[in-house]
Amino acid sequence: MKFESQLLKGVAPAVVLQILSRGPMYGYELGKEIEQRSGEILSLGKGTLYPLLYNLEAKRLIRGRWEKTSSDRKRRYYSITSKGKEQLASQRGQLKELNAGLKLVFGRALMPA
Amino acid sequence: MKFESQLLKGVAPAVVLQILSRGPMYGYELGKEIEQRSGEILSLGKGTLYPLLYNLEAKRLIRGRWEKTSSDRKRRYYSITSKGKEQLASQRGQLKELNAGLKLVFGRALMPA
DNA sequence: ATTACATGGTTTGTATAACATAATATGCCA
DNA sequence: TGGCATATTATGTTATACAAACCATGTAAT
Known about the structure:
The structure is a homodimer.
Chain A: H1 12-20, E1 25-26, H2 27-37, H3 46-58, E2 62-68, E3 74-80, H4 82-106
Chain A binds a DNA duplex through residues 1, 5-6, 9-10, 12, 26-29, 44-48, 50-52, 54-55, 69, 71-76.
């Protein structure tokens, strides 16, 4: 994340799952996509993103497979599993709840509009 | 936090500073207040809250002083410092920005209303 | 009075998460 | 050939949240 240290530890998996829920993607691409889709606000260093992908794969929330470009360049494409989709739904619920809690504590000082 | 593990690591200091910005409070009271003010959504175990308070005090964001109740019971009251207020303003800004980023990624699926 | 529960705080050990950094390697363009 | 973007892996560090155990006091119920 691009913030002062770790303001939002724990959101990264949800972000990754959410992006992958729109279609398979490989690590590097995913990193760029996260930045772009979040309006350059969210950003995961590779030292964060790749280990996170390994972790999500180990938990069977995503599945990876090697592919090669026409020029023999290898990429590992990840797709979300059905277990991952369930997890994502759960995480979205949690985020929503958290958001509600923060809103109660901080008031509308937190919301953009 | 009451969530599945640590969805929102890093928010705890901001929450504590925010609550303390309304007036001095001691640890135990603060814990209860966080739960109440967040509609029972947010919750910090004492193993989280007290070390966090020591840490914030070491950083001079809050200041603690011992007081006694009429019945000789000791409590450590914490108040936010001016440095803490600055930090809080900054953290609020970050939270707001983060919120904007998450909204972009997740769409209105995240927002309650 | 004894038990039980809420209050109030400290400390230790553990697991997780995000980070920077370095290493490795390829594709492409000037 | 040099430099930059692409692509992945691995290491070591730091920060954070947690549970659990511990200590101690106040108060209400039995």
